[in-house]
Amino acid sequence: MTFWKTFFKDTKLKKLYSNKTSSRIQEKILIKNLDNEGQDINIYFSTNNDIDLYELEQLCDSVGWVRRPLKKVKIALDNSFMIAYIFYHENNKKKVIGFARATSDNAFNATIWDVVIHPNFQKKGLGKALMNQIVYNLRSYDISTITLFADPQVVKFYRNLGFITDPDGVKGMFWYPM
Question: Which CATH superfamily is domain 25-169 in?
């Protein structure tokens, strides 16, 4: 390992190749004073890896996603390049209302997965704000190709954010166990 460290004397390179969460952990206000049933709340964005699995499961349940084993969800989160979520504070506790994650080769490509916004907070610009932050963060790692999979009913949403169908006409290929 000492041999490889000689290549990373430049602090910019050291930051780029260091542990992905060390220098880019963030938690910030995303939207101030969002109306939530007559009450103004601040919406926060975080890339900290401290999301509660049970709260994430409840969020996914709220949109009707099929339940996944929590043990596998934890493995998926642990192996993600980035975890991002949005929340507000209620009684000094975080209430997660949006989530997404990305996997990456750490150099050129990233794929965004599991984008979800709680139904009570949809149509308020939070999905757009969450996606813009994820793309911004991925671009800060100099990742140039960002992909995602979209169900037909949300393709228009992603197109409005600048995503396009593959310009080379390449079709995705999938393998599923029988």
Answer: Gcn5-related N-acetyltransferase (GNAT) (3.40.630.30)
